[in-house]
Amino acid sequence: MPPKLDYPELTIARRSWRYTPDGGCLANKVILVTGAGDGIGRAAAKTFAVFGAHVVLLGKTRSKLEAVFDWIAGNTETKPVIVPCDLLGMDESSANGLRDAIDQDYGRLDGVLHNASLLGPKVPIEHYPPEHWQNAMQVNAYAPFLLTHTLLPLMQAGEGASIIMTSSTVGRQGRAYWGAYAVSKFALEGLMQVLADELENAGRVRVNSLNPGGTRTAMRREAYPSEDPQMLPLPESHMDLYLYLMSDASIGITGQAFDARTWQYSTQP
Ligand code: NDP
């Protein structure tokens, strides 16, 4: 069954998807998306809602979250909520508060897309400002750990939940001048592997990493200012993979590192 509604970028991108998700593949699932106000996170939040999920929209800028909330509330029958939150300041108390709010609003959590990220300066390690290093590690690696650690019991209580750690090419092979951004993505890959191994026999929560590859967003423009953005895929181009990993289609798939540019859907695990 096709989803009830597309929006222009999604309609265009769907023509080249490698996998055709069922229109209700996320029906009634509750999914937290970090960095939901812009770029890939915004596309994921809207797409997840189009496919039936109630999305918890976490991000730094309230006005951006409100715009995504308004679109979802106006165009789908799902129930989004916004959580304005600077992950730079996330601590145990704010993570606990978020868990309690999700528990109260929905009573469960079926998925987390760890997507928010800080690029930081692109300079040699020798010249890397330590404060910027700490900030990137906090937002890109510590906050995903803290959220995962805190929300895991809520996810384990359900039928089967999915965690996606957003990685990067430089988080799988180090590259000069990518500093804390690259190192934080290595940390996320490590967190994914350790957690997947711990949960393998429990069977209820799967965790994978996903490298979207070069994608037309503000962060990409910041990283490659002279590049022509029109040459890059829209965030919506990758949403077949995001839907696959968030939906029950990927039950049993855990501990794997996905790359949106090379992924081919296969019914064989
Ligand atoms: P964008 O910069 O377009 O969006 C990043 C989002 O993260 C924004 O919504 C931003 O909120 C949010 N965010 C940043 N810092 C914080 C914070 N301290 N607290 C809360 N939210 C925050 O990035 P992309 O969409 O390009 O990137 C999404 C993910 O994909 C990232 O993990 C990135 O590393 C990864 N990636 C992207 C690639 C690309 O080519 N675009 C390539 C490889 C990986 P706000 O807008 O309010 O600041």
Q: How would you characterize the overall build of this protein?
A:
With 269 residues, the protein is of the alpha/beta class. The chain is 41% helix and 13% strand. A seven-stranded parallel beta sheet has the order 3-2-1-4-5-6-7, sandwiched between helices.
Question: Keyphrases for this structure?
Answer:
269 residues, seven-stranded parallel sheet, binds NADPH dihydro-nicotinamide-adenine-dinucleotide phosphate, alpha/beta, globular
Short description:
The protein is an alpha/beta fold and 269 residues long.
Task: Describe the secondary structure blueprint for this structure.
Blueprint: H1 8-14, E1 30-34, H2 39-50, E2 54-59, H3 62-75, E3 81-84, H4 92-106, E4 111-114, H5 130-156, E5 161-166, H6 179-199, E6 205-211, H7 218-223, H8 239-246, E7 257-259
Parallel strand pairs: 1-2, 1-4, 2-3, 4-5, 5-6, 6-7
The structure holds NADPH dihydro-nicotinamide-adenine-dinucleotide phosphate.
